[in-house]
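#struct-queue
[09:14] JT: dropping the first one here, sequence first, then the structure tokens:
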Amino acid sequence: MRDFRMMLRPWSLAAFLCLLVVSAVILSNQGNPLALVTIGTRFSEGIPEDAGGTEGYDGQFVYYIARDPATAPAYLDVPAYRFQRILLPVTARALAFGQDALIPWALLAINLVALAAGTWLLERLLVAQGVSRWYALTYGLTIGIFGSVRLSVPEPLTYALVLAGIMLAGRERWGWSALLFALAALAKETALVFAAAYALYLLRHRRWRNLMMFSGIAVTPFVVWQVVLKATFGTFGVGSGGALATSFEVIPFAGVARIITDSPPDARLALLGIFGVILIPFVLIPTLWGLRQGWLALRRGDWSAVTLLLLVNALVLPFVPFSTYREPLGILRFIVGLQIAVVLYAAYRHDSRALRLSTIWIVTILFMGSLVTGN
């Protein structure tokens, strides 16, 4: 029994439950792992939506790039935007030895390991602050990470690398930390928010040499890759967004307000329900809490890295595009960075109330019901 308790940890529980879910998806689709990729006929067969074409989900674009980068642009909604998240598809292609049939399995293996690794890393960071390791489930058992494994999208890999970068930064290993942030940014550009927070920390503490090294290593690969994308597709990947994407807002929380103002009158009641059930508890309240706590900490003279991680992540949310806010799954994937920052800051402050309240994010796993049946 003691050996079992030693083996039962947040990372193993999250990985085991996720394995059960993805197994159910595959079995319910006659053993076809492509169900995890969620392919739509609009992009795979060129059938327009008004002719009955299905949309699919973002994992299909990861799959197309991994299957054949040369032909993938024909199957992508916005090639530069999708190709900027290059790390997951090229890693899956390498792991599958270029075999099409193995690519969905490779995507699953990478993300499942990343889920376990990211949860384990957060456990270690929490234990180092003297708080319960089980608060790591606020990361590992939420739809932004757990659901992303089922959907074959980059969040598990991105944030596992981010958490490894945070751990190494805490040990003053700035070069290796920056390298991990550079890889994370090539998995998904939202990782740059964390790199920016650490750059601000080094700037505030006038650690010029570390700042130059960290910034150069963390950002240069992403910038170079953007130049390649511009030369190849005629546009940068960053900021271009996928199909029907809108730009970042200038007015704080305008993306939230536009859910109502830019929606058809007959859809507003349903959208208000979504707003109340999803955005208020899981997005807006944590964002406002993070902004307030970060501001109060700076007024106290607390310019720690953890404080800046919280404040920078919270500062991004008011300006998130309307197109992200209007898609419940999209915004729940976007807030993973804020989830990490909130938990780390609450642990740093030994704020047991905030840690307990952060577990509300685990409730988002209930939205997995619509993802279990496959396509």
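[09:21] JT: and here's the second one, same format:
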Amino acid sequence: MPIWLNLCAAVTAAVIAALLGFVLIPFLRRIHFGQTILDIGPAWHKSKQGTPIMGGFLFIAGSLAATALGYTVWRVMGGADATAAETGSRALRLLTVILFSLLYAGACGFTDDFIKAVKKRNEGLNPKQKILFQIVFCAAFLAIMYALGDTETTIDLLFVKLNFGILYYPVMMLFMIYIINAVNLTDGIDGLCGSVTVVSMLVLTVLCAKLLQPELSLYAITVAGGCLGFLVWNFHPAKCFMGDTGSMYLGGAFAAIGVACRMHLLLVLVGLVYVLDALSVVIQTLYFKYTRKKYGEGRRIFKMSPIHHHFELCKWSEYKIVAVFSLVGLAAGILAVLTQL
């Protein structure tokens, strides 16, 4: 797929997302779909009370429209042999990744946001409901990928390849659930998740192209473009939040693209910011429980988790956190690309 087409698709997604904000955000304000801020977060986050959620629809619409348009142009131009079995297989793989992202966003994200908005609380679906949805969708995704011919159960760990056999599927389910929830946790500061995702999706664009997956490369760059358009409304001070609708869509797209291209270890490197942000929550929780059992009171390693809140409490501005985390993501992404040269 030509570079100019990818770039045009990215710009199209960005423009659609940015312009759609003029319609969606006032609408969300009219129906009072605003965020409820808990007292457990940084005190100054209370000023964000009532900021419209579900802004993720901006980049969802932008990325889907741009992907459909870009793919159509590519096929019309003769960029793929419509009669070739491989072309059909790759198209079905793209459709599976998109549907997984959408259904994940709809079932887990939109439902969660809707409950928050209607009941005016910061908790939507309970953990058991979320896990059930996630297990079902990840299992269905892996089953469809198997049906499309992805029957390999080996995971490449760079220096060694391990064949997990039947255990590959539960391992991948847990892996995908962790990655998706990690992306969701990164959405805690204005512009953070969107900015980090722009970087990670651009890296996936390069990696997918190198792995001869032009359709997934197109989808990755339109998601990046859609996030750029969304950031017009989400940079501090945010005019809207992406909500779980948006973060679950981004997490689903990121995990599904990586697994579909069998970039298991690379996905950890490309999404290093997501992984570390979520890991900080795990570390904080385990350490708190351990010290409470040993000393009778829970102690903390970080001032607050996820770790981006720790840096907030260390007096880093939201702009600085977004810039530093994005640069860390870029460095990790470049390293991922270099490993494939």
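[09:30] RK: nice, looked through the second one.
[09:31] RK: The chain has one domain: 3-269.
[09:31] JT: good to know. The chain is about 70% helix and 0% strand.
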